[in-house]
C-alpha cells in the first residue's frame, strides 16, 4: 500500500478531533475525502503530509512514518495547498525550473517544458505569475506539486473558484496523473460532483470519524437515495443526531 492509516487519533487539549480513523490507498488510486467544515479533513491531511504530529495510531506514507520523513521521502510527496504565496514577478518556466533543481539529489524532476505541456500552460511559459488567470494560477499550483514526479499527491480543495471549463480540464489532468503516471491522489473537496467523477473511493468524515467509505454508487445504494448529494446529506445528518 502507498498509504496506510490505522487507528489515527488527534487531540487538542481535552478535545479529540480525530477518532480511530483508518483507511488505505494503493498505487494510482484516487481517494476523495468529504466532510463538513470542522470534520477533521485538514488535520488528517496535515498529519499525512508530515506537518502535524498525531496523538495516537499508525500512519505510513510510502512506507515511512510522515513524522520521521526525511528529504528523500519528501521528494516523493506532492502537495497542492488551497493557496500558494510566491513572488509574482517570477516567470512560469523559470519558477518550475528553479523548484525542480531542489529535487535533483533524490529524483529526476519533470523538465519544465514537458510539465508546462502536461498542465496546459505552455503558452504562458514566459508570463509573470501575477498575470495569470485564476485557472492558470491553479494549474501552476499543480505543476509545483508534481514537479518532482511524486508517488503520492495531496490536493486540498483543488478546484475552488474554477469555472466549468477550467474544472473539466483540471479533472482530465488528475485522471492522467493517476492512470498514466500511477500517482496516488488524496483530495479534499466540498464538490460532490468532483468526488463522483474523480474518485475510485470516497471517504465521508464527520465529527472526526469516517462514517462511510465506497464508490459513489455504493454510497448511494447504501443510503437508498437517488444521488450522491442525498447520500452525503443523509450520512452527515445521521451522524449529528
Q: What distance separates the N and C termini?
A: 35 Å
Q: Nearest-angstrom radius of gyration? A: 18 Å
Strand residue content: 15-25%
- Total strands: the figure is 9
- CATH topology description of the largest domain: Rossmann fold
Tally of discrete structural domains: 2
**Fraction of residues in helix:** 25-40%
Going by CATH, the architecture of the largest domain would be 3-Layer(aba) Sandwich
* CATH classification class of the largest domain: Alpha Beta
Ordered list of secondary-structure elements with their pairings:
Blueprint: E1 3-12, E2 15-25, E3 30-34, H1 41-49, E4 56-61, H2 71-74, E5 77-80, H3 92-101, H4 112-119, H5 134-146, E6 152-156, H6 164-180, E7 184-188, H7 192-198, E8 201-206, E9 209-214, H8 216-223, H9 228-239
Parallel strand pairs: 3-7, 3-8, 5-6, 6-7
Antiparallel strand pairs: 1-2, 1-4, 8-9
Helix pairs in contact: 3-4, 4-5, 8-9
